[in-house]
């Protein structure tokens, strides 16, 4: 394959949601159910799991032993999040690659999703290893420069850190088709992406960047319309515009989420979440199809059981 269209890849997520409204609405419903489940989990979460999550999300960088302990404590939540991500991404891939396999709006939990979970864990581990390795190499270079020219070494600290991020980001973009290849070919595929994306780094990066920018624009517009509508309702009922923020905040524990404003906010969040999943997952699928071609397996004749 000679290449692919960055703009077509970037807009594919919007296209599939527009052309498959029933599937999209089901994804919205699933996102809403997940949001409700997250609220319940947060309310009953044991203290040790909450402590692990706080350590992972802390601004201060934990030591390797602290991070390992935190990951073990928070593992139930991390596995849940990984499962949700894999199911939603697989639904988008299944719609694109196996359009006739539409049972349960392309969502299920099976071998495809388990492989995606596995490749995601490998990908995250690889990213962490890359950050460590690249930072160490550049740090050694800067340290050697500091020995010869102490002033120059100090000046290079910030550019060196930025260069590390650029190098790691570039490598991860080249490997970004690994989840798509894994789904399409029904086996863990990590480094095939490196071959597929050779010579296509900038179009691929442009597709990802354009997809994110378009989603941000749509999300901002949706939130603006929602805020204006909420403000009009508040003013019409005798309130003040400053009360709009309170309209979407739950008051009084779990029952507070049953308030109309909170439910409306959760529905909007679910719509944006479902759209985000499609917009983020679809560009890689289009890139794979146009750079690799149709997957080698006869999946269209043998759809998975729903």
Architecture overview:
The chain is mostly helical. It is built from 13 helices and no strands. α3 (47-57) crosses α4 (64-73). Mean pLDDT is 85; it is low at 298-306.
In percent, how much strand structure appears in the residues?
A: under 5%
The helix-strand sequence is HHHHHHHHHHHHH
Number of E-state strands: 0
Cα-based radius of gyration, to the nearest Å: 23 Å
The end-to-end span amounts to: 33 Å
Tell me about the biggest sheet?
A: none
- Would you identify the regions where 5 or more consecutive residues have pLDDT less than 50? 298-306
Number of helices: 13
Please name the defining characteristics of this protein.
mainly alpha, single chain, 13 helices, 306 residues
Layout of helices and strands:
Elements: H1 6-19, H2 21-44, H3 47-57, H4 64-73, H5 75-97, H6 111-148, H7 150-155, H8 157-174, H9 178-185, H10 192-196, H11 201-236, H12 244-247, H13 260-292
Helix pairs in contact: 1-11, 1-13, 2-13, 3-4, 5-6, 5-13, 6-8, 6-9, 11-13
Put the structure in a nutshell.
This protein is 75% helix and 0% strand. It has one domain (6-292). By secondary structure, the chain is mainly α.
